[in-house]
Design the sequence.
């Protein structure tokens, strides 16, 4: 397995011989609802589109996960696995191989040598009162390596029944809007999901490593928690999970100990 953090929630996951582009925002600015005065994020440097993409994996239909300018740049014939909400986004753009996964459903990603990766949708972040987006449990069917991804720190109690994983990609720092509550609740839930899934490694996501922010919303967002605070909590509980904080653009191989 190799992981490349492309900043914010965007990742290139190389697993089972496949290259999976996860929640990509690679080009142009990130703006919600055509309101740059409220929130606008810009990469300090553009992120190159990977030359080989076997699958696009989308956890949410919001712009920071299903980023329209990026999706418009990609080949519409690349297979997509997505939450039902995100599936509507790529279908509207003319993508031809779209699989929408409801919670609990799975998709097998094969290649010419056979089935390689199982992707299972788990309940993720609530978006409003009636919509819950996806997290994903990914299993390399050859090596049995497992990775869990959820980008807002909303972890379903159903995870307690899936057994251990090797790597978790999730926020460890929270973002809150006063009086409205958590947008990202990594500081509140990272320790709990580690206790549930017992990973060897946790890799933080959702932070803007090399991103410039503008707009009214940035003035009120408050960060809560830190990587060091989580490390201290793990030490106090005698949990051996390690936290790895890659730099944007760096491809790294998680060092995993076989069971």
Sequence:
């Amino acid at each position: 397995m190799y992981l490349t953090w492309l900043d914010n929630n965007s990742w290139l996951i190389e697993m089972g011989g496949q290259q999976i582009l996860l929640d990509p925002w690679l080009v142009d600015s990130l703006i919600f609802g055509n309101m740059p005065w409220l929130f606008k994020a810009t990469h300090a440097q553009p992120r190159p589109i990977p030359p080989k993409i076997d699958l696009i994996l989308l956890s949410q239909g919001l712009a920071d996960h299903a980023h329209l300018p990026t999706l418009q740049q990609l080949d519409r014939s690349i297979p997509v696995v997505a939450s039902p909400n995100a599936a509507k986004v790529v279908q509207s753009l003319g993508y031809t191989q779209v699989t929408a996964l409801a919670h609990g459903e799975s998709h097998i990603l094969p290649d010419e040598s056979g089935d390689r990766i199982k992707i299972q949708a788990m309940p993720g972040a609530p978006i409003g009162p009636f919509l819950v987006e996806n997290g994903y449990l990914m299993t390399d069917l050859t090596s049995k390596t497992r990775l869990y991804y959820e980008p807002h720190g909303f972890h379903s109690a159903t995870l307690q029944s899936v057994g251990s994983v090797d790597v978790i990609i999730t926020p460890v720092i929270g973002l809150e809007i006063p009086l409205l509550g958590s947008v990202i609740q990594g500081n509140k839930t990272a320790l709990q999901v580690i206790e549930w899934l017992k990973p060897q490694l946790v890799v933080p996501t959702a932070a803007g490593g090399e991103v410039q922010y503008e707009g009214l919303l940035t003035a009120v967002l408050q960060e809560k928690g830190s990587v060091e605070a989580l490390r201290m909590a793990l030490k106090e509980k005698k949990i051996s999970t390690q936290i790895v904080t890659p730099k944007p653009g760096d491809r790294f191989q998680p060092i995993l100990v076989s069971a």
